[in-house]
């Protein structure tokens, strides 16, 4: 969840970080760091975090009779 209290820290969604590539973040406190890195100044910004894509339902295994009462 985006607003979960148990978020694993990462500079890729920190207030002080800005993404410069897929693997690097520029941090106001530490400079250029890995996107998985974090420091004690980590502050979570939920708008920077990308949620997991939704699961797609495989409907090929269902038939019309599965949905009848």
Task: Describe the protein in words.
Helices cover 0% and strands 16% of the residues. The chain has a three-stranded antiparallel beta sheet with strand order 1-2-3, with no helix packed on it. It starts with 16 loop residues before the first strand and ends in a 35-residue tail after the last strand. The chain has 69 residues and is mainly β. The chain has a domain of 40 residues. It is elongated and about 60 Å long.
Q: How many strand elements? A: 3
Q: What count of helical segments does DSSP give?
A: 0
Helix content, binned percent? under 10%
Shape by Cα distribution? elongated
As a percent range, the share of strand residues is: 15-25%
Biggest β-sheet description = 3 strands, antiparallel
Order of SSEs: EEE
Set down the secondary structure blueprint.
Blueprint: E1 17-19, E2 24-27, E3 31-34
Antiparallel strand pairs: 1-2, 2-3
Top keywords for this entry?
69 residues; mainly beta; 3 strands; elongated
Write a concise synopsis of the structure shown.
The protein is mainly beta and 69 residues long. It has no helices and three strands. The protein has a domain of 40 residues.
